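Below is a filled-in request sheet from our internal design queue. Each sheet records the structural input a requester submitted and the sequence that came back. We keep these sheets so that new team members can see what a complete request looks like end to end.

REQUESTER: design group, bay 2
PRIORITY: normal
MODE: inverse folding
CHAIN LENGTH: 84
BACKBONE (tokenized):
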């Protein structure tokens, strides 16, 4: 696994802090975004879950993957997910 570039990381961290300040002053709305893909057949035969509460995902045999997009507001508890 590659190590992160510390200079680039600190620069990006500074940019995020500026965006947070802009949102706090009402200049913009700040959202964080991520995406993930899930596959009906996993290369890992297990997943973490609490004791006696097995984890599972519905397998869609007609689909090669289930893609999920999600974003969350920095200042509120608002969040949205979109399944593609």
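RETURNED SEQUENCE:
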């Amino acid at each position: 696994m590659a190590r992160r570039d510390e200079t680039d990381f600190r620069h990006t961290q500074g940019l995020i802090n500026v965006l947070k300040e802009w949102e706090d002053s009402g200049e913009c709305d700040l959202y964080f975004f991520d995406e993930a893909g899930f596959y009906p057949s996993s290369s890992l035969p297990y997943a973490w879950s609490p004791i006696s509460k097995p984890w599972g995902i519905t397998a869609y045999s007609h689909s090669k993957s289930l893609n999920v997009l999600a974003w969350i507001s920095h200042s509120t508890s608002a969040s949205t997910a979109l399944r593609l």
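SHEET NOTES:
- The chain has a mean pLDDT of 80.
- Helices lie at 6-24.
FILED BY: M.R.
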